[in-house]
Amino acid sequence: MIRLDGVTVAYRGRAVVRDVDLRISAGERVALIGPNGAGKSTLLKAVTGLVTPVAGSVELAGRPIRAMSRLAIARTIAVVPQQAILPFATRVEDVVALGRLPHEDPFRGAGPADRAAIAAAIERVGLGHLLGRDARELSLGERQLVLLALAVAQAAPVLVLDEPTVHLDLRHQVEAMDLLVDLNERDATTIVAVLHDLGLAAHFFPRLILLDHGRVVGDGPAAEVLAEDRIRDVFGVDPAHVRLGV
Amino acid sequence: MTMRGDALAGDRIGSGLFEGVRRRPVILGAVGMVVLAVAVVIGVAAGSVAVPLGDTVGILAHRLLGLNVTQTWAPSAETIVMDLRLPRVMTTLVVGMGLAVAGATFQGLLRNPLADPYVLGTASGAALGAAIAVLIPVRTLIFEFGLLHGLAFVGALTAVTVVYRLSRISGIAPMTSLLLTGYAVGSLLAAGLAMAMYLSGSGLRQIFAYLLGGFEASSWIRLATTTPLILGATALIATRARALDGLLLGEEAAVHLGVDVRRERAILLGLAALVTAAAVAVSGLIGFVGLVVPHVVRIAVGPQARAVLPLSAIYGASLLAFADVVARLLGEIPVGVVTAVIGAPFFLFLLRRARTGYEL
Question: What does DSSP assign to residue B47?
Fold first, then answer.
């Protein structure tokens, strides 16, 4: 589904992602982990076509991403936006509805199928109690859930998330992870998530990709990728401080 | 979070939640069309020579709809209505529509509630162009437009082009860069305008009258020249509602929702600038319509461009038509003064009672 060959991304001449080869098959559930500045978010930007690599190639569903229109990419990959600032008062359901932009008729707007997808996303993420409220008045965590629902409504075969749980309390973290597992197992959505919480990554994701200094330094199940010497080398902390529950 | 997608519950939310809200823009659109029709009739009837409402409706029905109405009015009334008042009212409608749609576009594009049609240098460019035209001792008329209107139009478009080009070579985020560049260029042009006004001597009053805006000089020919431009560009803006909706969440999110942001920004900017330039050339600088109307519409129906753009068009047209009636009844005072006096308090009132705690 996602194929990277020798991808290098540089900002102002400084390589942030270096020579990354990666295969993610349809239906996989993958967590990208690594310390700050390891290049996780940049790698995601290359996968979603937001940045163009200086070297290497990115393919989505067998097509080079350079040859795809924005609309075609948006129908293939849904990205949970980072915290968004809305310039105007916008109801929660209207924010979620934006997820249908790649699908709806550009002139007639949302049709019955779009409205059903919006309603289902709201139901699935559990936003019923927030309907009708201005999304700008919600807490950071609630807004994060609204944006998650937007991406769910987008209903693309691949769902990409960058730190989807930072503002969530413990219960919502677990619920968000459960939702990702459900989308993956029941709807066969390919999930790629950047996570800082190694515990969540280890518990909810069968495959972890560890990045350090822009390179892939570990790829496999948690027990393998999060071996004690790796944690010491990459994160620079005593593994005794990290309880992963693997 | 329910782990089983409950289709029934989904349907319930679907019908219960969206139906009422979805119908609201349609209802408001219908109400707006009635308001618009009333504005036309009153706009045609009111003035220094009052034409009775019944006669006004009769003349309009007879001449525009081709209805066989018994003629109860003097021929002079028909001349006033058809040759003086109707073109004027139609011009206010077209300009009001254009300004409101351009304002909604600039606000959405720049993601800035304080944006209006004049934000990226169009106003100062047009003003400087007009002032220069007054200084040049050439008097030409093409389609009843003078040098002043021509240079105002060119000035507005040139200013936006310069702002857009300059903004692209800066290192900061495109939207911020556009706003800041617009401010800088606008300030520079304002200095030029001040200089031109200082040098204009007896032409000062003419420049000033233009800056304040008005519709006294409306005619069918002028209307016929401006309307295709404003109507066409406005319609093209409406076809790009999806891009404006995507931008609600920011540029990056818009890209992820399938919007080619760089391309759409250039297109929408060009169209909105064209509408503004044409409006400014025909009627001078009229404030508040482009700022207030889109906000009022958003408070009523939410920020989706597909609803905001057409409703802004309808209500912007009505507002300016009514404002021009007031301006006329008060002895041809500048219509920009009227829009500000009506618009500002109404806007403040709406801000206070907006249910969702509207903030700028």
Answer: S
Q: Please tell me which of the candidates A88, A93, A128 has its beta carbon nearest to residue B303.
A: A88
Q: Do A82 and B252 touch (CB under 8 A)?
A: yes
**pLDDT tens digit sequence for A87-137:** 888 999 999 999 999 999 877 888 899 999 999 999 999 999 999 898 988
SS3 letters across chain A: CEEEEEEEEEECCEEEEEEEEEEECCCCEEEEECCCCCCHHHHHHHHCCCCCCCEEEEEECCEEHHHCCHHHHHHHEEEECCCCCCCCCCEHHHHHHHHHCCCCECCCECCHHHHHHHHHHHHHHCCHHHCCCEHHHCCHHHHHHHHHHHHHHHCCCEEEEECCCCCCCHHHHHHHHHHHHHHHHHHCCEEEEECCCHHHHHHHCCEEEEEECCEEEEEECHHHHCCHHHHHHHHCCCHHHCCCCC
Last residue of a domain, one of A109, A138, A156: A156
Is B360 in a helix, a strand, or coil?
A: coil
Judged by CB atoms closer than 8 Å, whether chains meet at B2 and A131 is answered as no
**What is residue B203's DSSP assignment?**
G
- For chain B, what are the domain ranges? 25-352
Strand A158-162 and strand A190-194: the pairing is parallel
pLDDT digits (tens, 9 = 90+) for B101-146: 999 999 999 988 888 898 898 989 999 998 888 888 766 666 667 7
Specify whether the CB–CB gap between B100 and B293 falls below 8 A.
yes
Split at pLDDT 50, 70, 90, the class of A81 is confident
What is the residue whose two structure tokens read 């066969």?
A188
Mean pLDDT for the stretch of residues B269-293: 92
Here the CATH number for the domain that contains residue A40 is 3.40.50.300
Is A71 domain-assigned?
no
Residues of A in contact with B356 (CB under 8 A): 89, 133-134, 137
Both A196 and A131 in one domain: the answer is no
Residues A147 and A163 in one domain: no
pLDDT one-digit tens code per residue, B347-358: 787 667 555 443
Distance from CA of B288 to the nearest CA of A (A): 18
Residues A125 and A135 in one domain: yes
Please count the structural domains in chain A.
2
Q: How far is A230 from chain B (nearest CA, A)?
A: 34
Tell me what pLDDT residue B137 has. 74
Judging by beta carbons within 10 Å of its beta carbon (0-12, 13-18, 19+), is residue A64 exposed, middle or buried?
exposed
pTM of the predicted structure, to 2 decimals: 0.88
Domain containing A7 equals 1-61+158-246
User: Nearest to residue A201, comparing CAs of A182, A237, A176?
Assistant: A176
A175 and B112 within 8 Å at the Cβ level: the answer is: no
Q: Are residues A141 and A165 in the same domain?
A: no
Q: How far apart are CA B358 and CA B343, in angstroms?
A: 17
CA-based nearest residue to A145, from A162, A167, A160 = A167
Residue A58, min C-alpha distance to chain B (Å):
16
As for the ipTM of the complex, it is 0.92
Residues A55 and A165 in one domain: yes
Given A156, A182, A197, which residue is the final one in a domain? A156
Q: What percentage of residues in chain B have a pLDDT greater than 90?
A: 40
Architecture of domain B25-352: Orthogonal Bundle (1.10)
Question: What's the token pair of residue B250?
Answer: 């920011």
Report if residue A70 sits inside a domain: no
